[in-house]
Amino acid sequence: MKYNGIRRAKFIDRPNRFIANVELDGKREKVHVKNTGRCKEIFVEGTTVILEEGINSNRKTRYSIIGGYKGDLLINTDSQAPNTVVYEAITQNKIDGLQDVTKIKREATFGNSRFDIYFEDKDRKGFIEVKGVTLEYDGMCMFPDAPTQRGARHVHELIEAKRQGYHSYIIFLVQMEGVKCFTPNHGMDPEFGRALKAAHSQGVEILVYDSLVREDEIVIGDSLDFILEMPGVALNDIEGEKDDEN
Length: 246
Description:
By secondary structure, the chain is α/β, with parallel strands linked by helices.
């Protein structure tokens, strides 16, 4: 996935989930944040963030934040990117167990949920839910970075789809490279962790991939191991807004 109109800026603050203030070319600029998660360990005052210039002349902000540096580590924070990256990877036969699909479409409704991808191949029909991961701690990546009722509901719906004969996948796309493995963040959202463990035990496929991230591009990388039992680290205060967009 490629970006156009990329600029570097210095992060100042984030008044709400959707808006941040940055310093661009020595001036204060209000920008859109393409991630409703907290990203507190990335969006730190003074850090370098990556902006994409919008193409809609009617939008209220000229730029959107799509990434940031955590030390030397570049993390893509665009919550819309994982769906596109995984979709592209499936069409290019880069996802384990999802090679040679005969039909694929984005967004499909099952029960009370709308999953990111529906697919068919010669023998199967199924649903895929994609989760973007931006939280990293000591080489471990975790999801979510804020409580997400929607996330647990999606997992339970995938279990039901599996029971009804569909093949169900949860793909975690880690929006950075160089991490060691993945675990659900039990400390932040134990309900999601329990749901993921139940899904795995009932045959829902769980896949984790890292990404090759550049300031103007993100593409799928290597598969990663995951540990479902390992307690996560609640890096953020769990009080406050819920992240119901991931």
